[in-house]
Amino acid sequence: MSFVKLPESVVPCRNLVGGEWQLPREVALLDVRSPYTGTVIGRVPLTSAAGVALAVEAARPAAAQWRATSLRERTQVLFRFRALLERDLERLSNLAASEAGKTVAEARAGLLKGLEVCEFALSLQNLDSGAHLEVSKGVTCEFRREPLGIVAGVTPFNFPAMVPMWMFPIAVTLGNAFILKPSEKVPLTACALGELMLEAGYPPGVFSIVHGGKEAVDALVAHPEVQALAFVGSSAVARQVYAEGCKRGKRVLALGGAKNHLIVAPDADPELTAQAVVDSFTGCAGQRCMAGSVLLAVGDVEPLLEEVFRRAARIQVGPGMGAIIDRGSVDRLESAIARAAAEGARVALDGRGQRPDGDTWAGGHWLGPSILDGVRPEMEAARRELFGPVLSVIRVPTLSAALAVENASPYGNAASIFTTSGAVAQMVVEGVRAGMVGVNVGVPVPREPFSFGGTGESRFGHGDITGVSSLDFWTQLKKVTRKWSSRTDGSWMS
Ligand code: NAD
């Protein structure tokens, strides 16, 4: 049985610099392996600071010309890009699934979310008309939204298309030249997006790609011409990128990791809740920042928990749940399960050692859905982001106790309440620390134009990565006051 169509030959990834695909000189090449099989499906250059400087140099004239085009003109190119994405949806979904280990359906959903962000950016020409007011007789004030110039985005492995598309459709439509540094674990989808950006007709240098790891990121953060940097990845790196960028006076928004809480009240709808909980912690094999990670069972919810255990046990890795990104991550997750058991948790469902049938998948990286019951708030499984299909169940006597556990987490990405009571739901909406809240929804990703972003160690910086506040991140407002008449009325103050 085949769950995904891997590339037929090894894909050589190149940087996209000034509209040309280039292999930077004298750099190491890294193998890109599919989590499904462990086989090499691509090779990616680890760009040095000099390679990053070349991309910035090529983006410089593009940024100057692009800012001089009108919003309407820029929007027309994005319309074409959106159409190309739809045309190639299946090919891109397979590519993203091949390198990230997602199911094809999950990869497709990520692309569709990227399309939604494109649609938000496409609507700006009609919705973001600015403000203009006669502030005194004969005197007007207005603001103009102006691009920053060259900006950059650094993205993680788990959404090879969606997370880059949280950023560049908006940044580019607002008139910036954008440099993408995709995860070195999933560079193939980024290259495919780059090809479509060229085919859509973006002028050379408006959209660039530099591949690599820490050295490329550090060079983007340090480069004086990179005006703003959006980052999405683990909290440790997000914190460091944010601090380094701010030190240099840059605008930085850095989204980090997560530990999301699913609060289950005794009056929750059993059918809806059990399925939503299972989907939340097993979707994308738990490798998403919106995955449910801790189930806070309030009072007596035993039958519902049993149903969660039963449904999760029925999931087959391969067709029902994708692979883990690499061997190191499987080892890390298996050790975390073993440590939780040693600390006193009951392994209610053990996914260790599970793999799909057939030799094809023997070299892949697998872990079946796993549930740790009787976890206590101070244990590692309750506090640390594990980033895999592992659910920790903490039993609490009251809703207030559940909120106390959620509030004590240093993260603050998402939290959900499952209840049939409006009052209980409202108490949780108001009481949680998380930036994104679900009511009877296990993965409360806000749809556009409601923006995406958490709090605490899940987000360093101000504002959100999509939606209305992203407009302020990728632009600056120029305020203009005009007076055309010498006769002003008494309300004029200067
Ligand atoms: P990661 O932090 O290892 O890597 C993210 C990016 O940073 C990659 O492009 C990588 O090349 C680069 N990088 C890695 N180490 C670096 C270093 N020391 N200095 C500079 N750059 C470095 O994250 P990952 O493993 O690719 O992705 C998983 C993490 O991302 C999880 O923690 C997950 O919760 C988080 N994530 C968060 C969100 C969100 O919206 N908050 C969304 C998706 C993923």
List the helices and strands and how they pair.
Layout: E1 11-12, E2 15-17, E3 20-22, E4 29-33, E5 40-45, H1 49-67, H2 71-87, H3 89-100, H4 104-127, E6 131-136, E7 139-147, E8 150-154, H5 162-173, E9 177-181, H6 187-200, E10 207-209, H7 214-222, E11 226-232, H8 235-247, E12 251-255, E13 260-264, H9 270-282, E14 292-298, H10 302-313, H11 327-342, E15 346-349, E16 370-373, H12 380-383, E17 390-396, H13 399-408, E18 414-418, H14 422-431, E19 436-439, E20 459-460, H15 467-474, E21 475-483
Helix pairs in contact: 1-7, 2-4, 2-6, 3-4, 3-6, 4-5, 9-10
Bound molecules: nicotinamide-adenine-dinucleotide.
What does this structure look like?
It is a single chain. By secondary structure, the protein is of the alpha/beta class. It has two domains: about 10-255 and about 460-480, Aldehyde Dehydrogenase, Chain A, domain 1 (3-Layer(aba) Sandwich), CATH 3.40.605.10; about 260-440, Aldehyde Dehydrogenase, Chain A, domain 2 (3-Layer(aba) Sandwich). Helices cover about 40% and strands about 20% of the residues. Helix 2 (about 70-85) runs antiparallel to helix 4, helix 3 (about 90-100) crosses helix 4 (about 105-125) and helix 3 packs antiparallel against helix 6. It starts with 10 loop residues before the first strand and ends in an 11-residue tail after the last strand. The structure holds nicotinamide-adenine-dinucleotide. Nicotinamide-adenine-dinucleotide binds near residues 159, 237, 258 and 289.
